[in-house]
């Protein structure tokens, strides 16, 4: 009986500390993941800026975004097709779902 009371008391005292530590670690993981995504996007944007500093890059952007053509050329617009960028993003986010053990710990420690 004394052992059971001691274990319950120890669990009652340790749980809040473990909960706070777990929440901080998960928050750190979330922020690190967000930082990695933003750094990747930043690198992509820097590449685009470098490409736009060349005459070929400006011409390509004018053709793709503004539909401009050189004299004597014809532009065609193709509609429909494969999955759009937003659909691919949603599918990628669904595939990156957290593992079962992490969802259990999240529920136990009240994360999200």
List keywords for this structure.
rod-shaped, 112 residues, mainly alpha, 4 helices
Structural class of the helices, strands and pairings?
mainly alpha
Tell me roughly what share of residues is in helical segments: over 70%
Looking at the structure, what is the overall shape?
rod-shaped
Uncertain regions spanning at least 5 consecutive residues: none
Pattern of helices and strands: HHHH
What would you say about this model in short?
This protein is mainly α. The protein contains four helices and no strands.
Task: Report on this structure.
The protein has 112 residues and is mostly helical. It has a domain at 20-68 and 101-112. 75% of the residues lie in helices and 0% in strands. It contains four helices and no strands. Helix 1 crosses helix 4. The longest helix has 51 residues, at 2-52. The two termini are 36 Å apart. 0% of the residues are buried.
Write the layout of secondary structure elements.
Layout: H1 2-52, H2 55-66, H3 85-95, H4 100-109
